[in-house]
């Protein structure tokens, strides 16, 4: 068995205090296709898969590498696992397919196009709100608002529920950071509470229907029956969590990198046609979902190692995006790369049956916000170094104070 050359496992939280440890990943990837890493969870360790062909073969074989224990390295408590196993993220085919079909239609190209006017109104309002100040805290004042607004509008959630839902999303997703949760247990509890909140919302909306995705979900039939309130709750949570933190982190990283690469920022300001390529590049360069985990359902050989039934198999998506066999000069941030090639090669949105259904929505959010910022804000500069949150699953900032001038 190949064991980890680092004193602590790569995914130890301390290794992520300044974001994804890219150098350590590169060293591991150069030496191994797959490596066993000790950890302090019940199984005592996990397999880390580092190369794209091996990651793809795991993610395209859900019968062998199941999602039924969830995408996190951590073990879900039994009761929460039972609840979450109603969600598409925790389901394998064939059950996965019918849950997934409930949401896929909402992110088809024509549906996205029809959403542009609603999104542009919000984008304008977000920048209106800060433009005269000359300073903002980019994560909270700018990056979080559009993704939340899009999901609220789709699902028909009233704006006043921002005050409960946004902190709840942070507690669930960032439970290892003491700024968001007192303990890991508090994070698990917040997850169950959020599903309960959404189940209550479903119940209200059955009494008072509206023309939105919530009532479409509640009226849809799977195998001749409708979703229960609780089943709606886990779909709701998946969309809220999947659709918000990820996108806000990516926008924050984009402006962080542009500020730190002034020539690339100037190029983009002079050529807004490069915006889609810049979005693709930041999705590659600073992929915000670091890994996804599967669990082996039988003894199987993978990348030359014998994987025992029940083992955790962690696909390091972050490794693919900086792999020199996938990208030329992978550690340079370059908005002039061919975006179609980047899109094909990167694994930012996963791969296989669980590949992100919201990826085109994410791209549209990022593109519209970026165009507005470039059109209206100038002389962007960081007021202090941004603070990373404590997570090995999500890579992003808690705060990024910034100064700017108005172009108007
Ligand atoms: C930059 C933004 C985003 C990133 C990096 C991202 C990343 C990912 C990844 C890596 C997966 C696969 C997880 C796995 O295989 O276990 C995934 C799944 C998912 N994402 Fe996204 N996502 C983003 C935006 C969104 C948006 C905007 C939405 C909703 C509107 C969304 C909803 C979902 C859902 C519901 C799933 C579960 C799909 C399934 O299990 O079949 N995501 N996302």
Describe, in plain words, how this protein is organized in 3D.
The chain is of the alpha+beta class. The protein has a single domain (13-406), classed as Cytochrome p450. The chain is 49% helix and 12% strand. It has helices spanning 22-31, 52-59, 78-84, 95-104, 109-114, 116-131, 138-143, 145-155, 162-173, 184-207, 213-219, 229-260, 262-270, 275-285, 317-321, 339-345, 359-376; strands at residues 34-38, 45-49, 65-66, 135-137, 221-222, 225-226, 292-296, 300-302, 305-307, 312-315, 377-382, 387-388, 397-399, 401-406. A five-stranded mixed β-sheet has the order 1-2-10-7-3, covered by helices on one side. The protein has a three-stranded antiparallel β-sheet with strand order 4-14-11. Helix 9 (162-173) runs antiparallel to helix 10. It starts with 21 loop residues before the first helix and ends with a strand. The model has no long low-confidence stretch (mean pLDDT 96). Bound molecules: protoporphyrin IX containing FE (HEM).
Topology:
Blueprint: H1 22-31, E1 34-38, E2 45-49, H2 52-59, E3 65-66, H3 78-84, H4 95-104, H5 109-114, H6 116-131, E4 135-137, H7 138-143, H8 145-155, H9 162-173, H10 184-207, H11 213-219, E5 221-222, E6 225-226, H12 229-260, H13 262-270, H14 275-285, E7 292-296, E8 300-302, E9 305-307, E10 312-315, H15 317-321, H16 339-345, H17 359-376, E11 377-382, E12 387-388, E13 397-399, E14 401-406
Parallel strand pairs: 2-10
Antiparallel strand pairs: 1-2, 3-7, 4-14, 5-6, 7-10, 8-9, 11-14, 12-13
Helix pairs in contact: 6-8, 6-17, 8-12, 9-10, 10-12, 12-14, 12-17, 14-16, 14-17
The structure holds protoporphyrin IX containing FE.
Protoporphyrin IX containing FE binds at residues 71, 88-89, 100, 238-239, 242-243, 246-247, 250, 288-289, 292, 348-350, 354, 356-358, 361-362.
């Amino acid at each position: 068995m190949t064991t980890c050359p680092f004193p602590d496992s790569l995914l130890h939280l301390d290794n992520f205090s300044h974001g994804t440890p890219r150098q350590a990943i590169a060293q591991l990837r150069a030496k191994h296709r797959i490596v066993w890493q000790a950890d302090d969870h019940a199984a005592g360790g996990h397999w880390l898969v580092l190369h794209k062909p091996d990651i793809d073969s795991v993610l395209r074989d859900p019968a062998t590498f199941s999602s039924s224990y969830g995408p996190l390295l951590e073990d879900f408590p039994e009761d929460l696992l039972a609840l979450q196993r109603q969600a598409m993220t925790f389901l394998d085919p064939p059950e996965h397919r019918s849950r997934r079909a409930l949401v896929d239609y909402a992110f088809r190209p024509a549906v996205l196009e029809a959403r542009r006017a609603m999104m542009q109104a919000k984008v304008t309002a977000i920048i209106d709100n800060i433009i005269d100040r000359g300073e903002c805290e980019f994560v909270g004042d700018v990056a979080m608002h559009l993704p939340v607004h899009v999901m609220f509008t789709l699902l028909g959630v009233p704006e006043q529920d921002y005050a409960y839902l946004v902190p709840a999303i942070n507690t669930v997703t960032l439970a290892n950071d003491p700024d968001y949760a007192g303990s890991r247990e508090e994070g698990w509890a917040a997850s169950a509470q959020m599903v309960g909140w959404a189940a209550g919302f479903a119940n209200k909306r059955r009494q008072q229907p509206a023309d939105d995705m919530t009532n479409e979900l509640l009226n849809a039939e799977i195998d001749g029956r409708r979703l229960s309130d609780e089943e709606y709750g886990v779909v709701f949570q998946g969309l809220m969590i999947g659709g918000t933190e990820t996108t806000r982190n990516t926008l924050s990283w984009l402006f962080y990198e542009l500020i730190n690469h002034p020539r690339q920022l100037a190029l983009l300001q002079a050529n807004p046609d490069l915006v889609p390529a810049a979005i693709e590049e930041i999705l590659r360069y600073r992929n915000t979902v670091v890994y996804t985990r599967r669990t082996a359902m039988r003894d199987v050989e993978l990348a030359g190692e014998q994987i025992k039934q029940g083992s955790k198999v962690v696909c390091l998506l972050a490794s693919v995006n900086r792999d020199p066999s996938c990208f030329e000069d992978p550690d340079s941030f370059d908005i002039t790369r061919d975006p179609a090639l980047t899109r094909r090669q990167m694994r930012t949105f996963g791969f296989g049956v669980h590949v992100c259904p919201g990826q085109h929505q994410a791209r549209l959010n990022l593109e519209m916000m970026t165009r507005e910022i470039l059109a209206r804000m100038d002389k962007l500069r960081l007021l202090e170094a941004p603070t990373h949150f404590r997570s090995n699953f999500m890579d992003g900032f808690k705060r990024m104070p910034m100064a700017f001038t108005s172009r108007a």
